[in-house]
Design goal:
Largest sheet: 8 strands, mixed
CATH topology of the largest domain: Aminopeptidase
Bound molecules: zinc ion
Order of helices and strands: HHEEEHHEHEEHEEHEHHEEHEH
Number of helices: 11
Structural class: alpha/beta
Oligomer: single chain
Helix content: 25-40%
Length: 471
């Protein structure tokens, strides 16, 4: 962490100069009592919110927060991933009042490993609460609420995303069928630190994106197909919760964007809650009295609420709290947009796109917790990602990289001829693996503001909105 500290501090100070007017204006508009971005931050908690930290660095930051605020925090692991990384929860509450009388609030981020801006937003929320814990506004919240922050629930996917942006977890998976999981992982062979998609050249030498030659890899498994067993499962953990699991299957039709099951049956795993990370979160939600929770994602900018699997039905008693969540989501979305100084939309998750067995449906359907999805980053809304990069490598250059050029083939099994070569295409997303977008601090601020609205929407202590299983 130390070698780039100066650089980070420099960029942090630039960012503070730029950001404060935006954040200050946003918070004042809604509630003048809400404190702004913390000032006079002790050295151990100086964090650049536009920097991409490794999972190990996030662990250090969580430990530093717990160490600096021992009376307000409890840091514990609620489970482990396939690769034995911890799923950390930082619990934050004031040391007055009985915990069982307080309102539980959950913030669970990064179920999709590559969506790392969501983890940063959860970390920022914890950091903001602790550094502002002397202000009357935060003191009052911590007197009445317990906030549970799990910034990374897919740490293996988070870490793998430093190689290649990766949504699933790392359940050992054998995609090339040779009996060995992850036997042809993506590997940088041209030394530019990025993983490229490889294509054959057209006759005139230009890139032919129809003739795909696999992914950048030395062909570790020696089957001639490059990168065909990457370090990633095919499971979308946000389709594997134990509620309406795999409700829609492959033959179900009628959904306007194709088959209704396209978002679940192929990615929901073999049974409900098969993954250790999902088991850990389910048991945590089951055992922790929680009135509201937000799961943080990236890809779009919105606040969604249940259901994911069907439309609202005013005659169904199970839908009783959905109008309340709709109204709260609208306020959360407005606060996000103002805090981040960007766009946000809101709707029920079903009308955004249909899925089943998502975390918010589990939380509300199974446990009665008011549950929201906050999507914190749509790269198309910000001009801070690089252009796609295309580089041609000749037959001789590929050989020099260690490729067995005589035996590698494209998707149709056609090999390379001498004199041909390959184009290495690196998308904008693939070039962002080591770094955060320039405006991540704004997304963090928007998400915090949205979470504050969610907290304020829940009554203090016991009341009509206490989850069913606690009553
Ligand atoms: Zn996601």
């Amino acid at each position: 962490m130390k070698k780039t500290l100066l650089k980070r501090l420099l960029s942090l100070s630039l960012v503070l100069v730029m950001l404060i007017p935006v954040a200050g204006a946003a918070t004042k508009a809604r509630n003048a009592a809400i404190p702004g971005t913390p000032q006079n931050v002790p050295e151990s908690l100086q964090i650049d919110w536009n920097y991409r930290y490794t999972f190990a660095e996030l662990e250090e930051q969580l430990a530093a927060m717990a160490e600096a605020y021992p009376k307000l925090t409890d840091l514990y692991s609620i489970g482990t991933s396939w690769q034995e990384r911890d799923l950390w929860c930082l619990e934050i509450t004031g040391n007055t009042g009985k915990k069982e009388n307080k309102t539980g609030i959950g913030v669970i981020a990064n179920i999709h490993g590559g969506e790392r801006e969501s983890a940063a937003s959860a970390m920022y929320t914890a950091w903001w609460f602790l550094l502002n814990s002397n202000t009357p506004y935060v003191k009052n919240i911590l007197k009445n609420y317990v906030i549970y922050i799990v910034p990374v629930m897919n740490p293996d996917g988070y870490e793998q995303s430093f190689v290649n942006k990766n949504r699933p977890n790392l359940r050992p998976t054998d995609r090339n069928g040779n009996g060995v999981p992850f036997s042809d992982p993506y590997t940088d062979i041209d030394g530019d630190t990025f993983i490229s998609t490889l294509y054959r050249a057209n006759a005139d030498g230009s890139i032919n994106t129809k003739a795909k030659f696999g992914m950048e890899s030395p062909d570790w498994d020696k089957n001639g197909i490059l990168g065909d067993d990457p370090r990633s499962s095919t499971i979308d953990m946000n389709r594997t919760f134990d509620y309406q699991w795999n409700r829609f299957d492959i033959e179900t039709k009628g959904y306007e964007n194709g088959q209704i099951g396209q978002h679940a049956w192929s990615s929901g795993g073999e049974a409900p809650a098969t993954e250790p990370e999902v088991k850990a979160i389910q048991s945590f939600l089951y055992n922790t009295p929680m009135h509201a929770m937000a799961t943080l994602h990236t890809g779009i900018q919105c606040v969604l609420y249940p259901w994911c699997y069907r439309a609202y039905d005013e005659n169904n008693p199970k839908d009783a709290d959905i109008p309340f969540m709709k109204e709260t989501a609208e306020k959360m979305c407005a606060a996000w947009a103002e805090g981040a100084d960007s766009d946000c939309y809101t709707m029920d998750s079903y009308h955004d796109y249909i899925t089943s067995a998502e975390m918010i449906d589990y939380a509300y359907g199974r446990l009665g917790i008011h549950a929201y999805t906050i999507e914190v980053y749509d790269e198309d809304k910000w001009e801070d990602t690089p252009e796609t990069k295309d580089v041609f490598h000749t037959y001789a250059e590929l050989k020099a990289m260690g490729l067995d050029v005589e035996h590698i083939t494209d998707a149709n099994g056609v090999g390379l001829k001498e004199g041909e070569g390959l184009w290495f295409r690196t998308s904008s997303v693939d070039q962002m693996v080591h770094r955060a977008p320039e405006h991540q601090d704004q997304m963090c601020e928007g998400t915090l503001q949205s979470i504050l609205v969610m907290i304020e929407s829940e009554p203090h202590g016991d009341g009509a909105q206490v989850p069913r299983y606690v009553r």
